[in-house]
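Anyone else keep sequences and structure tokens together like this?

Example one:
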Amino acid sequence: MLDIPLKVLIVDPSDSSAEMLAQAMKGLSKTVLSVKYASALSEAQKILADSDINAIYIDPLSLGIKVASEFIFDVRKRLPSIVFVLYLDFTQMERNRTEFYSGERRRLAHYFKLDKLTPIATFTDELKTIIKQCQSDLSYILTQEKISKLQDELISIQTKTSTEVASIPIKILQDIQEQLESLKARQHEKQPDVKPKSVFLSYRFAEYEYVDGLRTLLEREGFSIVTGQDSNTFISQAILERIKACEFFVCLMTHAEEKKDGTYTPSPWLLEEKGAALAMGKRIVLMVEEGVNDIGGLQGDWQRIHFTSKSFTKAAIKAVDQLKSYIG
């Protein structure tokens, strides 16, 4: 992926939310070259005509979903090298989901999205993740443009007469073909391999006493540890990217909410993180405190290690052994 600097246009009638986003972007000067702001679509059109923009962060709900989506699709048609991010309130979007994704707007389901209600503590990490997605998309677009140009060059050569073709050095033809093959291969490259022996550790941050010991054991065995942030209220794009980049997933499910029958449920975001890890095909170890149930399905009993406060050290050693068995 090319590290393409972003030249951003924020289109949002809310000065406060636009300012919050702009300030966060200004702190990322290595990846964001410039930030412009428009409070209305007419103003945005003028900026696009006069400025070099390659990324637009837009709130289609506040601007009006019908006119905003028309603006988005028109710009995408005229200026396909611009990437869009829907910068909006996810809760409001879900509340109006049927209308939001109606008709042609179903395409918006595949657009990058940034939640305006992202906690302040995690907003910058979330923004960095979205920026990387934008850079990846722009890199793909530029690659496509280069491929098209090279293919046009080949077609032009192929339509020449045999005499004209004979006058073209073989090296030029070989270079064009090699560049084409290289660019096409880049398009089909897999995501970068995850770091060997990396573990995403999912837990309630109140459980630091448990986690400190488990972390020490894992690090002694050569595992590197990745965690979420100290604001466990939702599973963000940044967290999903961290899970994706790790080879293994360990979830520490402790008592959260007590039920009427005296058993407990784990924290809901741990279930979400576990679900994401399963969907990504990660190798998982679940450490479940006695009394916790409703931990979700799709994992075998052999992946589940139960513990109490007295038996945690023994359970942690079993968890490390389970991870080591995955390695072979």
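And example two:
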Amino acid sequence: MRMLPALALTAFATGTAVVASWAGKADARVAVMHLTSSAFHDGGEIPTKYTCEGADISPPLAWSDVPATTRSLALIVDDPDAPDPAAPKMTWVHWVVVDLPPETRALAENVRRLEHGRFGVNDWNRASWGGPCPPIGRHRYLFKLYALDRVIELAHPSKRQLEEAMAGHILGTATLVGTYQKRAR
């Protein structure tokens, strides 16, 4: 289990975070950015249209407070509650986006192509959005944005490959949490 996402999630109230490096290097000061969606609020329910029970399109996202020295942005959306929030066994990756230009401040709803940047591979082995589709219970979906001091330059990285490439290069982070539970049939 990687330490960065858990540490970044707990540090947002302070304005800066102390984040441990995966490579065992010294801790680094990481700026706190802000990530929002006009479709749902932090901790709120993701609307059905963004899930497997709806149109399964990506939600709109916007962010601010990107550090001035940022060279690229990356986004990971995953579900740490898979398959069952009462007994989670894995983290399911829904979306990986890499090498967004540092001046980018939003992703529109239903992003299928990127003018700049690339999609990484999710746990369905697709380079695209895969919306919430939990088999049981209410799951949390973590939208994690990273400001990086480098361009990643991997064609279609997995979450693991992206995390390894980001190690020691994170300037800022932001997290937005959405929840979803399938409708009763």
